[in-house]
Amino acid sequence: MTVHAASPAVLPGAVAEVGPWVAGLDLGGTKIAACVAAPSGVLARSRVPVPRAGDTCAVARSMIATLEQCCAQLAINPGQLARVGVSACGPFVGARGVLCSAAPNLCGGLSETAALPNDWTQIDLEAPLRERFGRVVIANDAQAALVAEHRFGVLRGTTDCAYITWSTGIGVGLMLDGQLLRGKSGNAGHAGHSVVPSRSSPLPQCGCGNEGDVESLAGGASLARRWGADTESLFAAWRAGDARATGLVDRALDAVADLIYNLVVTLDIDHVAIGGGLFCAQADRLLHALRARVAASGRRPGMRSMVEPLRIAAVDDPRRTAELGALSLVIPADWNAFAAEPMALHS
What we know:
Shape: globular
Number of helices: 11
Largest sheet: 6 strands, mixed
Strand content: 15-25%
Mean pLDDT: 87
Number of strands: 14
Radius of gyration: 20 Å
């Protein structure tokens, strides 16, 4: 397996810090991010692309190597890490009593339209990470991001809320009565694979195999396939008024708005935070468009009382949310340096 070279970033004064140390690993649809932190804050960071080929341990080996490089920059042994928090795209599946990921944007064996250079139907995750680091805590990436935004960000002070990541795929974290919802297998919140009404014909296929789910209509990987180029060029064309780009983005907005509306009327939540690289790069226009669509869905008297109180916010920095999501799984409550002032809701 080829491990992509990482470029660790050591923050000023980091090498002078004496532990305890914890670490975070975030596995997304396109990148792996690692960091090491102490009570004063994050000390070192590194990011690499996600391997797309090799055996089913290739991704985990790259995650291990990336975190090891952060430790090397700080001149500490990975064995000195108290715990490692791992936020990973899912859904998760159990194999031999440990978690594997069956993420549609990583596993090419789930759908004939995946266009990935592998035939994986799942990737090994928990077993190799535990073998290397021992004390590992794993959660769905959207669940972890919800915990981070609830503790440090735009969802601070709320009790009934959701976090949506709109990036390569679509993920959701859910909280009711102040409690994170995990579900029977840790997969609560995979609403990106729920099917919504669509004006598309024929229905696009998601990497999971579904036709016409939210991710097939709005996920970055699906949009890029349907556009025929990267999403940056798609949104540039959309901003320039290109008719085809406008059609794709409008359908994506409709799908995400339907998802938000369904979450609100199903769970009776009053706050939704949205992050992810795709959304945040275009948040100046996408946020307003989503708010307008959700408000229109609740314009009728029957649902108005549930929808009108809803606040939809954009996270300040999706990279910060992902990093804090992984760390929030393992940082002690008394590490007060992490408790920054809450980020302001975007208006």
